[in-house]
Amino acid sequence: MLKQTIQQKIVQRLSPLQIQTIKLLELPTLELEQRIKKELEENPVLDDGSDNSDDQDGDSEDTRAKDVSLSEYSGDDSTPSYKLYVNNQGKDLKPEYNTFSVRESFQQSLKQQLGYYGLDDRSYRIAAFIIGMLDDDGYLRRDIESLCDDISFRLNIETAPEEIEKLLKIIQGFEPVGVGARNLQECLVLQMESHSEGPVKTNALNVLKNYFPEFTKKHYPKIITKSGMSEQELKEAIEEIVKLNPRPGGQIDDSYSEQAQQVVPDFILDNDNGNLSITMPKFNVPELRVNKRYADLLVKSADVNSKEGKEAASFVKQKMDSAKWFIEAIKQRQNTLQNTMNAILDFQHDYFLEGDETKLRPMVLKNIAEKTGLDISTISRVVNCKYIQTQFGIFPLKYFFSEGLLTESGDEVSTREIKNILARSIVAEDKHKPLTDEELVSVLSKKGYIVARRTVAKYREQLNIPIARLRREL
């Protein structure tokens, strides 16, 4: 038996403008430039203002189409002109920069060396395939048996593990030394074997080949006991080992997989005798506007009584709406970024005066959300991948956010300050007897910071500092 019921639901839907604004908020300056260029290419009624002859302020009523009466388009004339235009030009123009540089890739270098080896076609194809399987660090992460299957499937060449091993040995002789290794131990051994003969090399190879687990865990007394080396001999061997490169593939830049990001500041801090202000340079972001005259002409050129004409008018209406939403989203992005940065500046005013890290106040997203009246998720999008240029350096906005802890005197300090003191204490420690986490708690306590041992361990891990045993030196 069918039964009909009426149910009322409240569903919140984002408007196209809100969706557009959210997407633009997350973009740093360079990506915003690319996004605007893409929009200009895809939307014919969006104009970058480069052609002064199309300036809408100079358009007279006579130059506009008079016979456009389709309902899909006629409503556009009521749009206020300020919503059809946005000035994105700042006072400071961005200097030219290279966004792409062509360099010899890591694998190209190895294949070039392979070409000098004089292999037959079969061996060359297999060796080139092995090179293609190396990761960015220069390691071969695939096992030999799997490589045989891959080569059989992709190259239609039946091969054996022995042939793979032989060709891999050739590749391991290429520059940079250490490429083609299957693990860190093999990588370091390959590099050490290329060094000049001598007692230091002999001892270093002995450590790498026979005592690698003890070496990685810094169990030096065990190595001395088992190997018969003196403490001085082991120290010299370790000094030689730590000079080796654990990432040989990183010696050659690969412009196609390069992860380096060019940073362009989204804000510039000006300090005029203690009066702080924020500017937002717009660099190459063009002035945007809706070219209504061009939109009118598009509709006028079509037969308004035909199906094609109505479709053309509908198309123009859609593009007009899209252009207006995009321009308004750019405006809202500017205002949101400016308001957020001003709130951060006000909150961290003492820090921005001098750049003294000890004056950074504990600050979380909620603090700035409350000051601006914006949602926490909006603040999160604003600070993501955004940078500010100050007289004491360029910083990501995330740098200024940290939680707080109370000192013995009851003052609230930033966890960043605690981490800096922790890092400095570890740098100054006796490396022959490094400080344990318990001892670090005591060091901080003497300075007035009450921190639990597990908190010290957490901060140490966040600073990528190993435990005391792994920091010990001979």
Description of the structure:
The chain is an alpha+beta fold and 474 residues long. It folds into 3 domains: 16-52 and 68-96 and 282-335, no CATH class; 106-251, no CATH class; 404-471, Homeodomain-like (Arc Repressor Mutant, subunit A, Orthogonal Bundle), CATH 1.10.10. The protein has 21 helices and 9 strands. It has a 4-stranded mixed β-sheet. It has a 3-stranded antiparallel β-sheet with strand order 1-5-2, covered by helices on one side. Strands 8-9 form a two-stranded antiparallel sheet. The chain is flat, with a radius of gyration of 32 Å.
Defining traits:
474 residues; Arc Repressor Mutant, subunit A; alpha+beta; flat; 21 helices; 3-stranded antiparallel β-sheet; single chain; 4-stranded mixed β-sheet
A few lines on this structure:
By secondary structure, the protein is an alpha+beta fold.
